[in-house]
Amino acid sequence: MSAEMTGAVTVTRPTGSRSSGRPIRPVVAVLADGTPSYAPVGEVVVIDGTLVTCHLCGRSLRSVTAHLKAHGWTKDAYCEAFGLERGQSLEGPQTRKLRAAAFTARLVFDASVREGSAAGRERARAGQLARDAAVAARGRPIPEQRRRKALQALATIPPSSIARANSQRARRRLAEVAAAVAARAGYPDIRSLVLARVAEGASLAVISREAGLHKDWLSRHLGEIDPAAAAAARRALAGRRDAGWGPALRRLGFPDVPSYLRDRHLLQHRTVSSIAAEAGLSHHAVAAALRRHGLERSPHAAKRHAARQRAAAVAAGLGFERLSDYLTCRRAAGWTWRAIAAESGQPPSWLRRQAAAGGS
User: Fold this and answer.
1) Exposure string (b/e) for 149-179, b if CB count within 10 Å is 16 or more?
2) Which of 54, 102, 215, 289 could form a disulfide with 205 if both were Cys (CB 3.0 to 4.6 A apart)?
């Protein structure tokens, strides 16, 4: 036999004689209750465009729906057991065409059929059929056939489009939550709520907890929901956090925290611990202030600055602008590290480290 897969319907063309009525297909699956299945679960196998394979016995029939009485099954139970959608036809294409032709004739000559068809179309236009279907499907497991169709449809969508749609849906959800939080608190929007509570001395964590959210919710999402409100809140909270620096700034003669940290850490290359000792604050407070004011923290600032000064002094004493230029020149001339160390008066190990750091 040759087979073609079309959605959840497998079309099979026989190469030999027709079925004799006995199960000629092997068992391809077994249900949880032990019922054998002679066709794949979640698929309808159509043979030669006219016959449909019965999952229960493997026979090829024009209409499995009419055949189910022989097994004592209903169509709904059959579809549910074998993972088919309730609206899935269990007849071959030719049989469906014959039924459609017969129904068309009835639609022309039978007034009751016309009235019923018109009523159905009106319910479909009003959306009532879709609502009734959603109510009826509530609580039912998704059939395997529908799951496969959904996966096939998703496979055709580019991953970038899926990511973009997910991102847009997440932003809409954040906006809805923010609007609901502001409305419950009696504010027109999240910006008004945040600015009012920050002015009263509340932190973003406190506002989040009051709204019944995770304490970090506003810290994580306010910048995406309302960037202007997030910037205003940051400025207000930064000024409040810098209040503890007042005595040290007045004593040392600096107008604000950023200018003091810039002078001590970036210009004088003092460590965080040294700055904390001078200001009378904790190590954590100084590190947090550097992050808050956008100043890059340099680990081991004093030692690294001293090492750079040493390298510059050695290079200047030998008549070079940079130590890496001196080392490159001597190594290109065939000098050994021992000879370079003797000329420069520096240990070979230190010279090798400088060469590696400078890319020589």
Assistant:
1) eeeeeeeeeeeeeeeeeeeeeeeeebeebbe
2) 215
29 backbone dihedrals φ, ψ, rounded to 5°: -160, 160
Looking at residue 201, its amino acid is G
User: In this structure, what DSSP letter does residue 268 have?
Assistant: S
State the pLDDT confidence band at 186, using cuts at 50, 70 and 90.
Answer: very high
Note whether 74 and 66 are within 8 A (CB): no
Q: In the block, which residue shows the tokens 């002015």?
A: 199
Each residue of 305-336: pLDDT tens digit? 888 888 889 888 888 888 888 888 888 899 99
Q: Is 117 exposed, middle or buried (0-12, 13-18, 19+ CB in 10 A)?
A: middle
**Angle between the N-to-C axes of helices 159-185 and 190-199, in degrees from 0 to 180, rounded to the nearest 10:** 50
Report the SS3 class of residue 29. strand
- Host H or E run for residue 192: helix 190-199
What's the pTM value of the predicted model, to 2 decimals? 0.42
User: How far apart are the C-alpha atoms of 238 and 245, rounded to whole Å?
Assistant: 12
Structure tokens belonging to residue 79 = 């579809």
Report how far residue 72's alpha carbon sits from residue 333's, in angstroms, rounded to the nearest whole number.
98
Largest CA distance in the chain: 115
At which residue do the structure tokens 């040493």 appear? 310
Q: Cα–Cα distance between 13 and 238 in angstroms, integer?
A: 75
Strands 44-47 and 51-53: antiparallel
Give CA separation, 101 vs 22, 42, 121, 190, 306, in Å.
Answer: 31, 28, 19, 61, 95
The continuous run of DSSP H or E covering 2 comes out as: strand 2-6
